[in-house]
Amino acid sequence: MTVVCVAYLVALIAFVLVYLGIYRPLYSHPFPGEIADVIPSLSTIRLVELERWVSDEMSELMGDKLTPHELKLARKGRRKKIAEALIPVEANAKLFLAFTRHQVRSIRRRPPGPRSERDRLMEDLYELCQHCCMLLAFAKASRILLAWDTQRLIKFHRAIVMNEVRELLILFLRLSATYGEHCRENLLMALDVWELAEDNF
């Protein structure tokens, strides 16, 4: 009986931690308004800098140039730099989620019928925002709980997190283009992701 009670208590504590640590912060972001209100409140994402910190080239450079002691210190510093560079990414992903959640609810309340390109992009972006926010929360937890396995963390951020972030930004840029070229240009400037525009438009 005691074991069952302890198991239920542990499960309850785990649920509360997940709810308070991940779910509630994700879904408690206030609705930012229309896209014209969203763009000025975005944080700059330095995507090139972030990609450099998670790159194979950075790993090779550190392995070739540093002594074992310096390498140990540099790995710790590298995790910190990646975490700092992901702060605006996490903030913007939550902002995108709040914006698209409200818009998608409005779209789904309409009577059935053909959807515009903007509506389809909005629904796709909403799904991707949810996935990306959860992935970023998991990445943050992994940097804290699995800090000892630097190589695996770097590989995970390079192969999965960065691809998801790029996909999210590209889709948001495509959505912003449906509001007009001026809106898209302002978004590119606010996020500082000009390389995405060069690659995908």
Keywords:
201 residues; single chain; 0% strand; mainly alpha
Topology:
Blueprint lengths: L1 H26 L7 H4 L8 H7 L2 H10 L2 H42 L7 H29 L4 H28 L3 H11 L2 H7 L1
Question: What this model shows, in words?
Answer:
By secondary structure, the chain is mainly α. It has 2 domains: 1-30; 32-200. Helices cover 82% and strands 0% of the residues. It has 9 helices and no strands. It has helices at 2-27, 35-38, 47-53, 56-65, 68-109, 117-145, 150-177, 181-191, 194-200. α6 (117-145) runs antiparallel to α7. The mean pLDDT is 82.
Brief sketch in words of this structure:
The protein is an all-alpha fold.
**Broad shape:** flat
Tally of contiguous helical segments: 9
- Could you tell me the strand content as a percent range? under 5%
Residues in helix, % = over 70%
Distance between the termini: 63 Å
- Largest pleated sheet: none
User: What structural class do the secondary elements suggest?
Assistant: mainly alpha
**SSE order in H/E notation?**
HHHHHHHHH
Number of strands: 0
